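Consortium newsletter contribution from the modelling node. Members have asked for a concrete example of what our holo predictions look like. Here is one, prepared for the FE2/S2 (inorganic) cluster complex that several groups have been discussing at recent meetings.
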Amino acid sequence: MVAKQKVLISAMRHEAKGILSVEMVSAQADDLIPFSAGGHIDVFLRDGLVRQYSLMNDPKDSNRYQFAVLLENEGRGGSAFVHQSLRVGDVIEVSHPRNNFEVVDGATSHVFVAGGIGITPFISMAHHCRHNAIPMKLYYCARAPETTAFVDHLTPLFGENMLVHYDGGDPSKSINLTELVASEANAQLYCCGPRGLMTALAEVVDLQGGSLITEDFNPVGAKTDDEASKDGDFTVELLRSGLTVDVGEGQTIIEALKAVNIDVETSCEAGVCGTCVVDYLEGEPVHNDVVLMPDEQETSVALCVAGCKSKKLVLDL
Ligand code: FES
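And here is the predicted structure:
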């Protein structure tokens, strides 16, 4: 079971065109479970509708969480629900915070590259860096001033180390990532935003060298590996019980396990939250998640989206 806490929606604000911030406090007037910079929570909006949002307030705040949501007309329902149905005074449940996007210890400087609503984790990270006198810089890529949230909040945090780049929605006017990476050699790079931006930056870092970590809450479907999603013809072996379960074509491992009454804890079921991650000991999974780092994928697998190249996958379950 995902550990949850009940929260009361205490404030909602329009921050820019299509962007709403949501603030919450404990429904029991307690402190909330602490979070670290870059952390996120699962927000249980209504039955079956769970979304992950980065926490954007100062991690030193013990009594409130804040996140922001972009209204996406082509979205999967979460952003529309927040914009159209969630209201101040509502009581909902959220998970305990998790963090797949921590500020890296020991780096000499930290360079954040945000695209649009991907700015949110960098706000809590900026508070952390300020508290600890850690050098940081922000590149904030956005379409236009009216769609760019939190600039007034960010300016005192970053001072001169903030560059806002507007492209007007024209890819030919995108920020020059080659120059960016070249000018930030030796920095720890972080990126959060549209998948296109993260992929492009990762490609430049691959070519020019550097260290990059990304946070991706985009639905995984866009990058699902065909081989994995269609080729569900394999068996999972559960190490601890010795059971074997066939995964049929078009089935996820989670679905196959559920069909024989084996419940694995899940949340997003989209490969973005990490709740269903388990270790594997044998086999060649196809990793369709966006939560595990390449080195983690050598030993762990997100069961909600993974496929398998080998005939058998042995899980530490
Ligand atoms: S349930 Fe979220 S990654 Fe699998």
